[in-house]
């Protein structure tokens, strides 16, 4: 007698053996009683969305990951159902996925039952059949190369829809700690907000402990537990803390978290790097922490702060901190990354001050080597070398659209003649027209004024035009064409 | 079988074939009172050389068409008009009327000679060219149909004379796509190419995109065919996403432009002339823009454009898009872009 496919699948799943059940293997047997959710009990598991499109939109707009749980082919039989229950319906899973957008993925329509005033899929006790069927169509379209899929499978997408995790069979279902770790990585802002509720005891202890040494010990111990939300909890406490000593203690604890802390410190570090002079002590503290947590990220932020601060002494101090951290990292890609960011900041500073305060040769060498080591794209290195007064002509006429654009806005040799630039104003490619108009305006020629003013209102070309004109004018006049019209049409030197 | 029996069978078959053949020819219908009156009116108007009366009499014959009427179809009315005395049938207005009636009655083959003749004397008549295109479509001469419609448009035909027929052709071919060869693009995707090259039809382009993407999925696991269909889909959505887009369609088209950009980005080598991923993402960003607000209907497009700009070395744009994305919500990918942007770039 032929063994039913669902029994094989169930046995394979229960025994932990790989047992791929492919979507086209066999259709579900008609008329079989399908065990369904016990809707009498409150639903505490993973919340399945009611509308697929709305859920996907919400993920992007709210910055949430998307957890897709394909299990349409272990639809029937008590063993399969029990397994599903364990995989998706524990209270710990419900809590761990509260910050995600969850879809059960199943192409089959089931009956409905009223729960809490709304109709839900009776199979899953949550969500709707329309949503899990739409999710199935999405998963099949995106992840199946041959119109089959291993069932069960699990997929996790970031808020932009990029796949960050996928696995096959039931063992690929993510456990609560894994889901929380992903939540922190994908949605650190939400994690920082929610940690007060999800880790109430821990966060309350941090805020109520009066002794600074005890506070440091509590925070460090929490991080040592490898609780994915611990760095978020400590950062949340830092955001509320006003006492310098307590902040310092929390920073020290956070430094022990390593890379795990990067997502939750990113915004804060970026914020102070962008405006480093608002509170230089805070800037220095965040930069030091960032360098500890992730050397290359810390160096990127430090370089950003260095080129933005108006205090050269402060910039040098930040640079020394980054260089010291690089030395600690030893000969490694991380060390190379830190030095490279520093080299870029120094190169920019060299160009800005138009005076040699240090020998640029070692920085230029480092930047040149970065291209060979593929640490940086050639364009970024070329730009930094240009600050050091070094042109890197390609020696060949532009063959691609990108080459042509670059040759217009960043000429390797002599600038393109105005007559040729004027011809480019009629190019069918918008970015070439805009590049030509920018180059003309730099040369004092207002011939591309209309192109520039139109581009200023464009969400794609506008930011670069505004940036170029701001550099040229010496001040930022805003993001509207009207604000720039006089300057653009005037021509001549600034 | 004996010769006599064989002869009888042959005779029966011959009779049967003859009967069937006879029944396939629609017998001329005897004129009823209404037709007789219509004939008299037309003859009188023609003899009086009164164009207005001829037109009115022709118009009145429409009432004779319909189930249970004198003429079951418009083509039957056209046949009847052609059989009228020469003084009526030879009038240009009657010939053109007959041509339209044949086209409306789905007998394009009978309309073509009438329309060719009419165009010989009035080559700039856009309506005749539009009818000719439809007549040729009905007889299966699709390239001839497209040629006629193109000529009509070039001669200044208004959209409503031509475009409904083009849409109909494309949609009909989509219905029949199961008959298309599997080693080439479906006919629905290619038939209107000459016209689409000169006239923007965003609704048709979007439909072509949807159908080609669907067919690409159905073509799995044939990777080459799936890719070929997707590439063609990209070309169509790029047109739909460029130029004016109705307010209510913007977000939907933006999402499709984003999808198409991701398809192009995944290609190892993009075919010549295919829109770039950067351009498609840029259109998605433009179309997803919320008027008068900092928000965006398709935040993922901002990230995709940021990544594409970074790859091109357009650091300012990359940084601006990544920051706009992060102003909406968390995006690890946008943060990754910013970490690749030079220190001096951006706010």
**Strand segment count of chain A:** 6
Query: How would a crystallographer describe the biggest sheet of chain A?
Result: 4 strands, mixed
For the biggest sheet of chain B, the summary is: none
Helix content of chain B: 55-70%
Number of helices of chain B: 19
Query: Helix and strand succession of chain B?
Result: HHHHHHHHHHHHHHHHHHH
Given the C-alpha coordinates, what overall shape of chain B results? elongated
Weakly predicted, low-confidence segments of chain A: 1-34
Q: Strand arrangement, largest sheet of chain A?
A: 2-1-5-6
- Which residues of chain B form runs of ≥5 with pLDDT under 50? 9-28
Instruction: Count helical runs of chain A.
Output: 24
The geometry of chain A reads as globular
Query: By helix and strand content of chain B, what is the structural category?
Result: mainly alpha
The amount of helix of chain A comes to 55-70%
Q: Could you tell me the radius of gyration of chain B in angstroms? A: 30 Å
Count interface residues per chain for the largest interface.
A-B, 56 and 43 residues
The overall average pLDDT of chain A, rounded, is: 87
Class from secondary-structure proportions of chain A: mainly alpha
Radius of gyration of chain A: 29 Å
Could you spell the SSE succession of chain A in H and E letters?
HHEHHEEEHEEHHHHHHHHHHHHHHHHHHH
Task: Walk me through the topology.
The complex is a heterodimer of chains A (494) and B (347).
Chain A: H1 5-15, H2 52-62, E1 66-70, H3 78-88, H4 91-96, E2 101-105, E3 112-115, E4 118-121, H5 129-143, E5 153-157, E6 163-168, H6 176-186, H7 188-198, H8 200-208, H9 212-224, H10 230-240, H11 244-255, H12 262-274, H13 280-293, H14 295-308, H15 312-329, H16 333-353, H17 361-372, H18 378-387, H19 401-409, H20 418-424, H21 430-442, H22 449-456, H23 462-473, H24 481-490
Parallel strand pairs in A: 1-2
Antiparallel strand pairs in A: 1-5, 3-4, 5-6
Helix pairs in contact in A: 6-7, 7-8, 7-10, 8-9, 8-10, 9-11, 10-11, 11-13, 12-13, 12-14, 13-14, 13-15, 14-15, 14-16, 15-16, 16-17, 16-18, 17-18, 19-21, 20-21, 21-22, 21-23, 22-23, 22-24
Chain B: H1 3-24, H2 33-47, H3 51-61, H4 74-82, H5 86-89, H6 92-104, H7 108-121, H8 126-138, H9 142-154, H10 159-175, H11 187-190, H12 193-196, H13 202-218, H14 223-240, H15 250-266, H16 277-288, H17 299-312, H18 315-328, H19 332-338
